[in-house]
Each structure stands twice: as C-alpha cells, then as structure tokens.
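#random but structural
TW: two for the price of one
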Amino acid sequence: MRFTAAVLLASLNMAAYADSYQALTAEGAALIPAFQQQLLGTVKAAMQAGGPAKAVEACRLSAPQIAAEHSKSPWTVGRTALKVRNPANAPDAWERRVLELFAERAEAGEALADLVQAETVDGEFRMMKAIATGEPCLACHGKHIEPALAAVIDVGYPQDEARGFALGELRGAFTLRRTVEVGND
C-alpha cells in the first residue's frame, strides 16, 4: 500500500488532534472538583448559618463570583441546566443538546457520574459533566419546598424553573469552554 504525503499528514494531524483532545478533556475535568467543592461549601455554610433562605441568597450572590474565580484563562467555567433558576445560566444550543443527551442516557440507566461530553464547536473546545441532584439540593430544588422558602426564591428568581427534582436526578451540568488554537505543527 502506498502512502502519499497528504495521507501521512492527515493521519499525523488526526493523531495530534486525538492527543490534544485527550489533554484538553483532562485539563477541563481537573477544573471541576474545586469549583464544585467551593459552590457546595458556600451553600452548606450558608445553610448552617441561616437555613435554606440564607443558602438561596448565598447562591444568588456567590455562585457567579465563584464561577469567575474558577475561570482560569483560557478556560471559562460555569453551570447550566434544562430547568434554570437564574436565566443567566440558560444553556446555549450546544449545551441544550448535550443536556438532552444526558437526560436520555440517564433514562436508559447510565450513571450520572459517567456523563461527560467534550467536542470542538465553532473553534472552541466545549465540555460538560452532569450534576446529580444531591441531598443538600433538595431543600431549594426538590419537590417539597417550604412555602416561606418558595416565596424567598420567587423574589430573587421570578422566572425560576429549577424545582421538582428528586434525589439522584439530573440537575444540570458543569460547562467549560476555551478557544482552541489552530496551528500548522
């Protein structure tokens, strides 16, 4: 079999892309735990200090700042969901497609902890990792929210859709993105 220079170059580019893809996926995945821990720690501390209403306030005020702190150039880190509390976290078209895919995969029995999607979209490396509804989430996002707390949520988030979740359900996803450099190496 004869290999032309173009075929050889294409195979080298594909190998380089695969290596780059794996490196970017690992790099992005490494950013999630610290972001997740700080968000959860902030909400838990507020819950202990003043109950669920204080946790809602802490989340509203601190979550955007925490995301900004964990967005280390060239990465942007955030959260999104199909049912958002804060409209600023609404998914874009790619994120919505991935969230719907996660929902289908979870419905088919795949563990939420295993749901990760990464790909290059419009010159950006995009990555999402599913978030399961945990026990601490239920007071503010569960099926049985206390009426006084629901009133507090309604004031801070008049367009809230992020209610009615059960333990272990897909709550949303961490979403990461960065520009991909295209080179001729």
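TW: number two ↓
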Amino acid sequence: MIVITNPFFIEDEIQMLNSLLEEGLSLLHIRKPDFSEVEMAQFIDQIKLEFRTNLVLHSHHQLAEDLGIDRFHFSEKERKKFPARFPKPCRFKSKSISTSTHSIEDFNSLENEFDYAFLSPVFKSISKENYHPEVDLFEALKSRTNQHTKVIALGGIDAENIQKTLENGFDNVALLGSIWNNKNPLKQFKLCQQIALSYSQSQV
C-alpha cells in the first residue's frame, strides 16, 4: 500500500509518518511541492533512517543520494516536458521510478522503465474539491495493454472502496485524503491496510 504525504503542514506529521512506517507502510511518497531544497532535506532527516528505502521523492531528486533514497516519482507534467529523460537516464538506471497518469491511453504509452504509475482519479477526490473522474476507469482498465508497469489507483480511495478497486484490476492503491482528512490517520491506515492484505491473501 502507498501513502502520499499531505502537501500542506500537519501538526505532529513526522511522528505520524514514522508510526505509519512502523505499522508496515510499504511506500511513502514525499510530496511537498512548496518545500525548498533545504526544507525537504530537513523534513526527511526527521524520518527514521531505517525507513529510507520506503521513501519516494517527488521533488529535489538531487538530494536522494545524500539522504539514502533510491525511489523517484515524476509528475505527468515533468514526464511530458522532458521526454528525453525517459527511458531512464543513466543516474536512474538502478533506481525505482514511478509517474502519474490520468487516462488509460497515457498509462498504456509509458516506457517500460516505469515500475508503477498512478492512474487517477478513480473516485471523487477526498482532498481536492471538484476533482472527480470524467470517465469510468474500471471500464477503461479493460483496455490495458501495458502489463510491465503496475497500475496504482489514486483519487477517493478509502476503506469503503479498496476491495472493489482491487477486484476491478488495479494492482495497488494509494491513499491521501482518506488518511489526512481522518481524525485518526493511523487507525484509518491500519483498517485500509487490513482490507488490502485480506484481498491479496484471498487471491493466493
């Protein structure tokens, strides 16, 4: 399961992030678009060193080596603005890279270098006002031709629809609003995690 940080300030955020990772969070996407390079380094320095391999950097990729991070995310805008970067530039060859897509056509056209990609919005967004799907992504996913890149559901994912999302062909889910808009983020994460794990175990 993937959790994306709230782009805005949250009280006791570092403590909460460490708790999520201690509870078995596989991947934590560090998305703080307004952070300077210094602020990003200071933020990540507060996350326990043992969890650096679980972190995915959305910006200031140049900090990765010093911080012990080998996972990188590129927005759709970055991917399309700098197509020459993909397939992987040399400095990302041994790294894990992911990206964001908003249509099955974009997802299918990705280079094989991407390990996984967000496809959104699946449902009406919890964190973004007036952000909702314009097409049925469950139906669109039937046209999937890209089997190399894992497809991750994003947008409105919560405990009520995780199983439905996985049953309809998504490889995994990413949580944002359902965690950070909840009064008890850790409890909500554990509930979502259990639903996803139960589904995975039922498919073995």
